[in-house]
Amino acid sequence: MLRTLWQDFVGLIYPRLCLACREPLVTGENHLCTGCRAELPYTDYHLLPPDQNPLGRRFWGKLPIRHALSYLRFVRHGRVQHLLHELKYQGQRDVGTALGQLYGAELLAAGLATDFDLIIPVPLHPRKLAKRGYNQAAAFATGLAEGLKVPAANTALRRNTNTKTQTKKNRAQRWANVATVFEVENPASIIGRRILIVDDVLTTGATLEACGAVLLAAGAAEVSIVAIACADR
After folding, report:
1. Cβ count within 10 A of residue 28
2. From CA 122, how far away is CA 125, in angstroms rounded?
3. pLDDT at residue number 41
4. Which of 120, 122, 141, 144 has the most crowded Cβ, counting Cβ within 10 A?
5. How do residues 36-72 score in pLDDT, each as one tens digit?
6. H/E/C letters for each residue in the chain?
7. pLDDT digit string (tens) for 81-139?
């Protein structure tokens, strides 16, 4: 009782804010307010048959994938962009873990957990990792692992080249930027496994495509991809 009163008092002076809309959170809310939880642009792609999933079509003829998943749709200047900005540039790694837990629980309820043996995030180059202090895709992967009850291997892939940002590149430029930069850390741990590859934002899919190709070449049985948010092309 005293602890709750103290927390409420501290909250009046230093209110915790929703990372999507910046409104104060109330008791029982973490990272996201109830309103944003209800109004975020969810994709629900995990509920669609694979041949009806518009995200999966982006990989047709490029990479054989089992599932193409994204928790949210990326909308410029909206809640999702603000969430991703907080995650990537404001040190709020917990928002990635929290979103992963929420989406992982939905995927578990949809029966998808049995389709994955291992969850692997897209890696950052060591220099970028040292500068940021954490990998935002790994934060999301950690939450997914908890929600899905599937193990994560956050160091299974290694980025051996510090590539330039993908933000202003077209698809061909993005592919050329990442086509040869990933390596499997321990190929024996990949052979025969069904891998779920994790990124924060999916635009053209070039980065996930490059990671998937490397994992399949290393002996993975199949790959699926998942992102926090996907942008319309």
Report:
1. 6
2. 10
3. 94
4. 144
5. 889 999 999 999 988 899 999 999 999 999 999 999 9
6. CHHHHHHHHHHHHCCCECCCCCCECCCCCCCCCHHHHHHCCECCHHHCCHHHCHHHHCCCCCCCEEEEEEEEECCCCCHHHHHHHHHHHCCCHHHHHHHHHHHHHHHHHCCCHHHCCEEEECCCCHHHHHHHCCCHHHHHHHHHHHHHCCCECCCCEEECCCCCCCCCCCHHHHHHHHCCCEEECCHHHCCCCEEEEEEEEECCCHHHHHHHHHHHHCCCCEEEEEEEEECCC
7. 989 999 998 888 999 999 999 999 999 999 999 999 999 999 998 888 898 999 999 99
Lay out the sheet containing 194-202: strands in order across: 65-73, 222-230, 194-202, 118-121
Residues in the chain: 233
pTM for the complete prediction? 0.85
∠ Cα 79 85 91 (to 5°): 125
Name the amino acid, one letter, at 143.
G
Q: Is the pLDDT reported for residue 150 higher than 50?
A: yes
How far is Cα of residue 8 from the mean position of the Cα atoms in its chain?
A: 32
Give residue 185's Cα distance to chain centre. 20
pLDDT at residue 10 in the model: 43
